[in-house]
Amino acid sequence: MSKRRQSLLVILSLSLSLTITGCGLQALLGNKNKTSSTKGGTEAFIAVSLNEEDPNKLLITKGIDDLAKKENVQVKYMDQSTAAKETPLKGAKVLIYQGGNESLLKSAETDKIPVLALSQLPENVKLVGIITPDQEKSGEIMAQTIVSKVAEGQVVILGDPNETGYQERLAGTKVVLSKYPKITVHNIVSSPDSESGVKQGLVDFLQKNPGKVQGILAYTEKLAAIANEVLKQAQLDKKVILVGGQASVPSLERMSSGAQVGDVDTSPYLQGVNAYQWAQKIVKKESLDVNDSITSDQGEIPAKVIQVKAVTPDNLAVIQKSYTKTTESAEQDQKKKRSQQVKMLNQKINQKINHKIKGKGKTRKRIRVVISREQAAKESKLNQVPFLLEFKRLRNG
Question: Which of the four pLDDT bands, split at 50, 70 and 90, describes residue 352?
Answer without folding.
Answer: low
